[in-house]
Design a protein that fits this description.
The protein contains 10 helices and 13 strands. It is α/β, with parallel strands linked by helices. It binds acetyl coenzyme *A (ACO).
């Protein structure tokens, strides 16, 4: 038993931060950011919480699917940093959504939404759940270093969601990894144990941008090409490639290697920045609400991120 996407949702913070806004306190400018990354603005949490974004995205997905809260058997939230270490965000959002079921958070880095779909597929296959709510909720603004122009200009906050149920929509899902923590890393708060021999200082997100870039372009292309050939598909047999929105140049690098036209590579990075695991479900929701995910539509999801890890899914609507 595979799964089917029954509905999608998303939510962005209301605060828009443009490249010019960043140039007001960082040694950067719109030209550098937009030509190197494609990003023109991003949304950042101000008076909202990450939980409120997750709740809104989840509510939108339930409405879109026409599924009542009591039908949901399990909630999975992909996040690299929830509101609290415990309880999970997947539990905290339930009262606002009228849910009462098991919930847990998953940290798969930017690959988190695809990892959560895989866990959902397993829960459906085992008979433990018939319908699940899968949410990716990310607040990178909380652990980006806002004094480091080489990283903070890339990120934004967002939540995206999908209601999934029994069905044959998920045709295949694959993962790969290359453990390289030095390339992309952010630490948890240090704690104050008097017994810790070598307490680690808190560390904001650190990234070796060019290493991530090389990894992303080569892996995304290879993962997608392998998925296509495993299913005897040509690149143009796929209607949409919904890739992790990390950098427009990475998207273009993968697209030109696949030799597909730009219409098949939707993007919103210019408006949202990189929102880690939320980029894929937010973009999926935008396509869905634009009426583009028609029955029979074939989509490849692909994401890469901390680990380093990659995930690729082939979906039919
Ligand atoms: N504004 C102006 N100048 C800048 C900025 C900035 N915001 N940031 C860096 N620079 C400068 C550097 O200091 C450097 O100056 P120098 O030549 O005087 O030393 C110059 O620009 C070039 O810096 P590079 O790091 O070599 O720039 P590059 O072309 O590699 O672009 C970038 C950097 C955009 C980060 C790119 O490497 C990239 O996109 N990598 C992928 C990153 C990514 O996808 N991360 C997310 C994945 S994981 C996740 O999603 C959480």
């Amino acid at each position: 038993m595979s799964l089917k996407i029954l509905g999608t949702g998303s939510a962005l913070p209301k605060k828009v931060v443009t490249n010019d806004d960043l140039a007001a306190f960082l040694d950067t400018n719109d030209e550098w950011i937009s030509t190197r990354t494609g990003i023109r603005e991003r949304r950042v949490l101000s008076d909202e919480t990450l939980q409120s974004l997750a709740e809104q995205a989840g509510k939108n997905a339930l409405e879109c699917a026409g599924v009542a809260p009591e039908e949901i058997d399990f909630v999975l939230v992909s996040t690299v940093q929830a509101e609290t270490l415990s309880p999970a965000l997947a539990c905290d959002i339930q009262p606002a959504l009228g849910l009462k079921c098991m919930g847990m958070d998953i940290n798969g880095g930017c690959t988190g939404f695809i990892a959560a779909l895989s866990v959902a597929e397993g829960l459906i296959a085992s008979g433990r759940a018939k319908k699940l709510l899968v949410i990716s909720a990310e607040a990178l603004s909380r652990f980006a270093d806002w004094t480091d122009r080489s990283t903070c200009v890339l990120f934004g906050d967002a939540a995206g969601a999908a209601v999934v149920g029994e069905g044959e929509g998920l045709r295949d899902i694959r993962f790969a990894s290359e453990p390289r923590r030095e390339v992309l890393c952010a630490s948890t708060p240090p704690g104050n144990s008097p017994f810790a021999v070598d307490p680690k200082p808190a560390q904001y997100l650190k990234m070796q941008g060019q290493e991530v870039y090389k990894f992303a372009v080569s892996h995304s292309f290879k993962d997608i090409r392998d998925m296509l050939s495993a299913h005897e598909l040509q690149p143009e047999d796929v209607d949409f490639y919904v890739l992790h929105q990390a950098n427009m140049r990475i998207l273009e690098g993968v697209r030109t290697r696949l030799k597909v036209d730009a219409e098949r590579f939707p993007h919103n990075i210019e408006r949202t920045g990189n929102t880690s695991s939320a980029t894929v479900p937010v973009l999926l929701d935008e396509l869905n609400r634009a009426g583009k995910l028609k029955p029979g539509c074939r989509v490849i999801l692909n994401a890469f991120g901390a680990g380093l890890c990659t995930g690729t899914a082939l979906i039919e609507f």
